[in-house]
Amino acid sequence: xxxxxxxxxxxxxxxxxxxxxxxxxxxxxxxxxxxxxxxxxxxxxxxxxxxxxxxxxxxxxxxxxxxxxxxxxxxxxxxxxxxxxxxxxxxxx
Length: 93
Prior knowledge:
This protein has strands spanning 2-4, 9-11, 17-27, 30-40, 47-57, 68-73, 81-90. By secondary structure, it is mainly β.
């Protein structure tokens, strides 16, 4: 979204935010999170589930495997890491 005026230019950046389950927490300050979503086929209207794994920056190493976490888009930390963890929503049992 961009709004322009005569003298100044304002830019609003929208950062994406997801919630998923931690599948790996073996690295230092990095967790791998699986996000599941339900999509609908455009022609047949059948719903199917898909999942994607994200590499997420965890500064305090507080997330463990099985936890549900919320994470947000940010600047690139490395080749694959462009997300940072904002909160642990639910701890694993």
